[in-house]
């Protein structure tokens, strides 16, 4: 005799519900529902910084389409437009520019958009180079230990005893001495990337080394060793994903520092060539005419550089707090 609890409409509904698989949330929903996304949504400073940084980055990437002119095209420049104040009509040509022009008649708005492209390219490339070098050195030093750890960390300690800008100047000077004079201008940006990257790898190496020394003693790494996994596979598949949190924080903050370092080197005249000026080069040009009354040539690039660096730095501070398990 059948049990009434296991027969009838209720039993059919139970079977039907059991037969329907539960819908798993999509990847976008998981990202949106994560702790980091919630921290971002509830932080006004992070939202404003993200919007500002994204706006400047998009404006720089879309510069060829949204810039009024191409400031690096000599055929489009008119020296008669030089030193035109913002929103004022030029007495000779009758042209009006939103942010004025510089000494060569370049539209400042266009020059800033194109200059931001170079500054961002140099900053991102230098941070990626520093990340690759620092992560590699940190993983080797933390996992192998012994003489490899001693040699790599002593090199890092020696480099930390000097300011990063001096290391970058030294590397830039040595590289320019090796490169033939005919190729110095075309290779200037790449030399600048190498100089900044080689001067900033130490922070990544020290953080990754410490995290690797903690992770290699955990059970999942010991289990991988027991089953005969290759050390290279252990480093890439097991240890590296677990040490990327602090690395992302340092990379975000390091991006702002790399952009400032590029601007500093360009301001000192050892950065990108004048034919492809970055924000630092525009600031150096504007500084020459500050006391003669052409204040806008210096002010607008400096404000854009300061805004970009501040927004990225605030995002790095938020990411550091968001990934800190003690603050959750």
Which SSEs are present, and which pair or pack?
Layout: H1 9-19, H2 27-32, H3 35-41, H4 44-61, H5 63-66, H6 108-144, H7 146-160, H8 164-178, H9 188-199, H10 201-215, H11 219-226, H12 231-267, H13 279-288, H14 296-322
What does this structure look like?
The chain has helices spanning 9-19, 27-32, 35-41, 44-61, 63-66, 108-144, 146-160, 164-178, 188-199, 201-215, 219-226, 231-267, 279-288, 296-322. It has 328 residues and is mainly alpha-helical. The protein has a single domain, classed as MetI-like (MetI-like fold, Orthogonal Bundle). Helix 11 crosses helix 12 and helix 13 runs antiparallel to helix 14 (296-322). The N and C termini lie far apart (56 Å). Belongs to the binding-protein-dependent transport system permease family. Keywords: Cell membrane, Membrane, Transmembrane, Transmembrane helix, Transport. This is ABC transporter permease.
User: Helix segment count?
Assistant: 14
Instruction: Spell out the helices and strands N to C.
Output: HHHHHHHHHHHHHH
What is the name of the CATH architecture?
Orthogonal Bundle
CATH topology: MetI-like fold
Low-confidence stretches: 14-20
Based on CA atoms alone, the radius of gyration comes out at 27 Å
CATH class value: Mainly Alpha
Distance between the termini: 56 Å
- What is the mean pLDDT? 85
Q: What's the helical proportion of residues?
A: 55-70%
What would you call the shape? globular
Protein name: ABC transporter permease
Keywords: Cell membrane, Membrane, Transmembrane, Transmembrane helix, Transport
Subcellular location: Cell membrane
Family: Belongs to the binding-protein-dependent transport system permease family.
């Amino acid at each position: 005799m059948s049990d009434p609890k296991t027969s009838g409409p209720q039993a059919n509904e139970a079977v039907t519900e059991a037969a329907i698989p539960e819908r798993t949330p999509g990847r976008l929903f998981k990202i949106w529902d994560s702790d980091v996304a919630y921290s971002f949504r509830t932080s006004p400073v992070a939202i404003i910084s993200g919007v500002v940084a994204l706006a400047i980055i998009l404006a720089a990437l879309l510069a060829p389409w949204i810039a009024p002119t191409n400031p690096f095209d000599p055929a489009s420049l008119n020296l008669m437009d030089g030193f035109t104040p913002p929103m004022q009509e030029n007495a000779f040509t009758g042209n009006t520019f939103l942010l004025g022009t510089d000494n060569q008649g370049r539209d400042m708005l266009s020059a800033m958009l194109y200059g931001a492209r170079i500054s961002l390219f140099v900053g991102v490339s230098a941070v990626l180079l520093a990340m690759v070098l620092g992560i590699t050195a940190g993983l080797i030093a933390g996992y192998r230990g012994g003489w490899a750890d001693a040699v790599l960390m002593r090199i890092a300690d020696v480099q930390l005893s000097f300011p990063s800008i001096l290391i970058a100047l030294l590397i830039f000077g040595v590289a320019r001495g090796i490169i033939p004079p005919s190729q110095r201008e075309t290779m200037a940006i790449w030399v600048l990337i190498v100089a900044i990257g080689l001067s900033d790898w130490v922070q990544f190496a020290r953080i990754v080394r410490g995290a690797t020394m903690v992770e290699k003693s955990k059970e999942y790494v010991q289990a991988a060793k027991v089953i005969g996994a290759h050390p290279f596979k252990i480093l890439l598949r097991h240890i590296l994903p677990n040490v990327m949190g602090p690395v992302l924080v340092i990379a975000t903050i390091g991006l702002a520092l790399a952009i400032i370092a590029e601007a500093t080197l360009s301001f000192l005249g050892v950065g990108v060539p004048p034919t492809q000026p970055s924000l630092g080069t525009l600031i150096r040009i504007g500084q020459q005419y500050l006391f003669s009354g052409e204040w806008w040539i210096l002010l607008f690039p400096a404000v854009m550089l300061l805004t970009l660096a501040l927004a990225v730095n605030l995002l790095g501070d938020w990411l550091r707090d968001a990934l800190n398990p003690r603050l959750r």
